[in-house]
Design brief:
The protein has 171 residues and is an alpha/beta fold. It has five helices and five strands; from the N terminus they run βααββααβαβ.
Length: 171
C-alpha cells in the first residue's frame, strides 16, 4: 500500500501530525489495513509513505522481515499495528519539518521511486519465502499528475507486469 502525502505539503509550510491523522484518507487507510489483516491469517501488508522528500516503509518496521502475527485475529494486535504506524508517521513528520525549516528543496512527486521500492521489497520477500504468494500494489494519491515522471512510472508498471503483480490505483 503506497500512501502519497504530497498534497499535505505547501512550500515553506510546516506540517502537523494532526493534519494527516485527522484526515479521512488516513482513517480509511487504517480501516483497510485492519480489515485486510483480519480477513485471513496469512495476509501481510506493507505500508509505504510517499512524501515530497522521501519514500519510507512505515510498516512493517525497518529491519523486520515479517509483520505482526494476526493468527488470533486479536484486536490488541491490530491496535498495536495502528500505534506503530502512528508513531512512525510522527517520526517522519518531525524529519520532514526539519527539512522544511532548513529550506531543503523537495520534489513534487516521488511515485515512480515509491513503486520501485515496493517492487524491490516484494522481490526480496518472494526470494526469501519458501511458499508461493500473490502480491498486489494499491496506490492512494491525491497529488497532481507530473508528466515528467511518465516514463519512469511506465517502466515500473511494465516491471510489475513482468513480475505478475497487479497495481490498483486511486489517484
Amino acid at each position: 500500500l503506497i500512501f502519497d502525502v504530497t498534497h499535505y505539503f505547501a512550500p515553506n509550510k510546516v506540517i502537523s501530525g494532526e493534519v494527516i491523522f485527522n484526515s479521512l484518507m488516513y482513517q480509511h487507510i487504517l480501516a483497510f489495513i485492519n480489515s485486510f489483516l483480519l480477513c485471513h491469517e496469512k495476509n501481510k501488508i506493507v505500508l509505504l509513505i510517499a512524501s515530497p522528500f522521501d519514500n519510507t516503509i512505515v510498516y512493517p518496521a525497518s529491519g523486520s522481515n515479517t509483520s505482526l502475527s494476526t493468527t488470533q485475529h486479536s484486536t490488541d494486535t491490530i491496535n498495536l499495528i495502528n500505534i506503530l504506524i502512528k508513531v512512525k508517521i510522527n517520526e517522519l513528520i518531525e524529519k520532514w519539518n526539519t527539512k522544511v525549516s532548513n529550506n531543503e528543496q523537495y520534489q513534487h512527486i516521488l511515485l515512480a521511486q515509491a513503486l520501485s521500492k515496493v517492487l524491490c521489497h516484494i522481490n526480496r520477500q518472494q526470494n526469501q519465502s519458501t511458499s508461493i504468494f500473490h502480491s498486489r500494489i494499491l496506490i492512494l494519491s491525491y497529488a497532481k499528475d507530473n508528466h515528467q515522471h511518465y516514463i519512469s512510472i511506465m517502466n515500473t508498471i511494465f516491471t510489475a507486469k513482468a513480475m505478475n503483480i497487479a497495481i490498483d490505483a486511486c489517484i
